[in-house]
Amino acid sequence: GINAEYGKQWYQRRVRVEGQDFPSANTMKVRLEEAQRARRRAREAKVAAEGPSAKYVPKWFAKKKCEITGDEIWRFTDEYWKCKETQTWDRCPTVYLEDEEGDNT
């Protein structure tokens, strides 16, 4: 399976869309996007405070040189599949922020 948190959240959102509960589905989407922005801002603040050594390194991709064009490109590292195989998702960031009731709906 996939990361349990990802699967649960996307399933809940899909159920809301299919049930035509668009306001609730959109709220979930906005929460996801804002959580992503917050993580990016935190990473940028860390780099600003600690310098280039604190620069973010993607978990699933690495910069490589394209063998054909010589351009710098992002290549998938296959690390995701290793995590999936062993079901060790601790490398994944928290995707959703918990709401007031303590659940991720």
Task: Give a topology summary.
Elements: H1 4-18, H2 22-50, E1 61-65, E2 72-76, H3 79-86
Antiparallel strand pairs: 1-2
Q: How many helices?
A: 3
Q: Strand tally, please?
A: 2
Radius of gyration: 17 Å
SSE succession: HHEEH
Assign a percent range to the helix content: 40-55%
Q: Which percent range describes the beta-strand content?
A: 5-15%
Strand order of the largest sheet: 1-2
Please tell me the overall pLDDT. 79
Largest sheet: 2 strands, antiparallel
Structural class estimated from helices and strands = mainly alpha
Low-pLDDT sequence parts: 99-105
What's the shape?
extended
Terminus-to-terminus distance? 20 Å
Report on the structure:
The chain contains 3 helices and 2 strands. It is mainly α. The chain has a two-stranded antiparallel sheet with strand order 1-2. A hairpin with a 6-residue loop joins strand 1 (61-65) and strand 2. The chain starts with a helix and ends in a 19-residue tail after the last helix.
Give me a quick take on this structure.
The protein is built from 3 helices and 2 strands; from the N terminus they run H-H-E-E-H. It has about 100 residues and is mainly alpha-helical. Helix 1 (about 5-20) packs antiparallel against helix 2 (about 20-50).
